[in-house]
Hints:
Elements: E1 2-7, E2 25-26, E3 29-30, H1 31-39, E4 45-50, H2 55-62, E5 67-70, H3 75-83, E6 92-97, H4 105-116, E7 121-127, E8 134-135, E9 141-143, E10 151-153, E11 157-160, H5 161-169, H6 177-183, E12 189-192, H7 203-218, E13 219-238, E14 241-249, H8 257-270, H9 275-279, H10 291-304, E15 308-317, H11 327-337, E16 342-348, H12 354-357, E17 361-371
Parallel strand pairs: 1-4, 1-6, 4-5, 7-12, 15-16
Antiparallel strand pairs: 2-3, 6-11, 7-10, 7-11, 8-9, 13-14, 13-17, 15-17
Helix pairs in contact: 5-6, 8-10
Family: Belongs to the IspD/TarI cytidylyltransferase family. IspD subfamily.
Domain 2-C-methyl-D-erythritol 2,4-cyclodiphosphate synthase: 219-370
InterPro entries: IspD, IspD/TarI, IspD/TarI_cytidylyltransf_bact, ISPD_synthase_CS, MECDP_synthase, MECDP_synthase_CS, MECDP_synthase_sf, Nucleotide-diphossugar_trans
Amino acid sequence: MIAAIIAAAGSGERFGAPIPKALIHLGDKTLLQHAIANLAPLVDQIIVTAPAGFEKQIAELVGDEITVVTGGSTRSESVSLGLAAVVAETEFVLVHDAARALASTEMTSRVISSLKAGEVAVIPGLPEVNTLKVVDADGYVLESPERSSLRQVQTPQGFAYSVLKAAHANSRDVTDDAVLVANLGHNVLVIAGEDCALKITNPSDLAIAATFLGNASSFRTGVGVDAHAFGEGRELWLAGLLWPGEVGVDGHSDGDVAAHAICDALFAATSTGDLGSNFGTSRPEYAGATGTQLLQETLKIVTDAGYLISNVTVQIIGNRPRIGARRAEAIAALSHALGGVSVSILATTTDGMGLTGEGKGIAAIASALVFK
Length: 372
Ligand code: CTP
Ligand code: MG
């Protein structure tokens, strides 16, 4: 059996929020909920140390399967109190900080693997990038430790249960449990840490953590394609612009393949259907709608689904018209319809091959990147 103690009883004085730091939100969850979600797949029991007075609120937040105990006045004391709630048959205990909310399941599994391979104390750590000095009380340098041998250690730290229990039996106030275990003469192994396991101490750390979250979980992409055949007697609308003197295309709407492909890329990225299901023949109010009107409607659907658009690209495929001369104007028209997002427009011919190469029509392929 593996137990995890998540230290969450601090007040977060340096962070300066009116609520305990573990209850601060990062994206869609509190720091404590992130820490739990990352450890839960690997452990049999989770114990959370709560600040006095917040036990009930935290118990409701984390659910029945998690043990909540009241923490102490120091981190070491909180961990000792958590340790008292570990079930007897436990083999390994992880000690983690709620403040390192984004420490990954992958790194945690490496800690556990080393324990299973026979280590009694395993902690993640990153190489130190700064040159560090040991100073005396007056600020004079006593020592300059060799940087290459230094590590910034993180949590979760993993221990054999019996070893950690013995270490805490006569504990003093230390900032990590590995010190206590080392004091008993045990080997402590440092394995590779990770940037996303940073400790959230000040508000600026939360902003850094948010960048890890954004990259990890909430970006989505989509691709959209459209093609229309040329139709005599129609004017050409393409990329939000009227192209005087060019042959237009057939279609239910204005036939703007660039706008339509972008709409579909956005629907694809946000799982909100497609052009047909949103604006098709069953929705007569959209008959004859312009490409820019459909983009505006699409922006609304995507926004209502909770997404922001990062950027869109579209490549127009056809022999005519020549896009280059009006590229800036077309980008401005499409971007304006999408509320000002970044738009790129490319164009190509297909060397005389296929429907567009034979001059039968125009096609477009678009991509979109969105985030929640
Ligand atoms: N912690 C704890 N019990 C304490 C003090 C700290 O369980 N008496 C926990 C914190 O909740 C945090 C972790 O230990 O998840 C690391 O501590 P730190 O980052 O220093 O958090 P705080 O003590 O809350 O912050 P500060 O020192 O700024 O007050
Ligand atoms: Mg503290």
